[in-house]
Amino acid sequence: MKHSTKSRHRLRKIPAIIASCAVMASGIANADTNVSAEIESLKKRITELEATQIEASGAGVEIVDNKNDTSFEVNGRLHLDADLFDGAYNSGNDGATASDIFARRARLAFKGDNGNWHYKATLKFGGDRDATLHNAVLSYNGFKNNGGPQINIGLVKEDMTLDVTTSSKDTTGISRPMITNAVHPSHNWGVRINQFFKEQSFGYAFGVYENTDAGDNGQDAEGSTLLAYTGRAFWSPIAEKDSVFHLGLWGSHRDYGGSELDDRVARGEVRATGTRLLNYAAGGSAVEVDSVSQYGVELASVVGPFSIQAEYVERTADAAQPGGFEPELDGYYATASYFLTGESRRYDKKKGRFKQPKGVEGAWEVMARFSNGDATSATQGTSVDVITVGANYYVNPSLRFSLNYLNADVEGPGAFDLVGDQSSGDAITFRTFYRF
User: Fold this and answer.
1) What was the pLDDT predicted at 32?
2) Backbone torsions φ then ψ of 86, nearest 5 degrees
3) Ranges assigned E (strand) in 280-328
4) What is the Cα–Cα distance from 169 to 249, expressed in whole angstroms?
């Protein structure tokens, strides 16, 4: 069969066309491979981004790496106060009306997790002081994650009194009751274990700390460390969103090594005053003691928007000299609060403490408190009663405004020596709470 010249020319092009198609097919295949690789790479990157979360809220900024089980968070708080007071609160100036505006607290905290380890460090600022370390804690959660205790070491907050265990950003009143301020040493270097038993609704904490309130910043005359042994236990058989019943006990034995026990026991719940109204040495003298023992009972309940919280505290001392004067201290307080807008105080059953309502916004709370502290003996010391009424306005979880009115009465053998004719005093305190 003969083909024309034109046909033969077309036939000669077929191999070239086939080759071109092969090249194109190869290119398409390679392109598909590259696209698939890019898609897999994007999927991998998305997974990595999902594993690392950055969250910002009223509680600060938190970075979480789920892949490596680590996190890092920065938060802080600022408490700006304005105090107006007279009478016994300003007895050093014949009871004249005085006022002050100041930063009560300014703190910056860093915390996070690395596997079974948790860390936290807080710097505090305020007044004319340089930044100082407020706490620095390293916690091991390996046992806790399996139902066992948590181990904490560092500059740790001692567990005593419900009111002090509750953070200053979550308390109902602007100032704490004077009796809890009188006995709590805040943070000390030491080791603490704490544990919560979910089925029994029971928790405890126990620690051994350096007692920096005694001696030369926690050292006796021979340079040995003075220790404090502090424990707390609580039970909360009811711990629902708007219904709580809490019962707690705590105790602390503190070595003093013959050093002097501070006579300026407590201010009377107004920070700016220069007069410590609760004073065991007023009208007499301060004493040296070998040790101090103190304990307390806690009771609290929440029923819807209403809550009540009360504590009784007692302290005894062992004189350094045989037959010497051994000052005693006891007192109590009761606080009631009510949310006019229907919220409930939030209870942390694992720690046995209170927090402000979660996600609170535009809420009004009113409160009232009666507190007493008695540091009198037959010949010296004062006894103080303080009545507080106030209101809190929660703009949102980060911002709150508080206003308190306080009235104090001072009695006892040492009252005239301490405050003269100014046996009572009035105060108005205002605070702006801000946290991030």
Assistant:
1) 54
2) -150, -170
3) 288-303, 306-319
4) 23
Specify the DSSP class assigned to residue 18.
H
As a whole number of angstroms, the longest Cα–Cα distance in the chain is 141
Give the global pTM: 0.85
**Own/partner long-range contacts of 26-29 (Cβ < 8 Å, ≥24 apart):** none
Q: Tell me the pLDDT tens digit for each residue of 406-425.
A: 999 999 999 999 999 999 99
Which pair of structure tokens corresponds to residue 401? Answer: 């405004």
pLDDT the model gives residue 52: 56
- Say how many residues make up the chain: 436
Exposure on the CB side of residue 400, measured as CA atoms within 13 A: 29
| Complete DSSP assignment for 212-268 | TTSTTTSB-TTSPBPEEEEEEEEEEEEE-SSEEEEEEEEEEEEEEEEEEPPSEEE--
Distance CA 185, CA 229 (A): 12
Q: How far apart are CA 51 and CA 21, in angstroms?
A: 45
Cα Rg for the chain, rounded, in angstroms?
A: 32
Closest CA to 74 of 60, 58, 88, 64: 60
Using 70 as the pLDDT threshold, list the residues of the chain that sit under it.
1-35, 38-39, 41-59, 67-68, 126-129
Dihedral-angle region of residue 342 (phi above 0 means left; psi in -120 to 50 means alpha; beta otherwise): left
- What is the four-CA torsion angle of 31, 34, 39, 41, rounded to 10 degrees? -170
pLDDT at 254: 97
Tell me the pairing of strands 70-85 and 329-339. Answer: unpaired
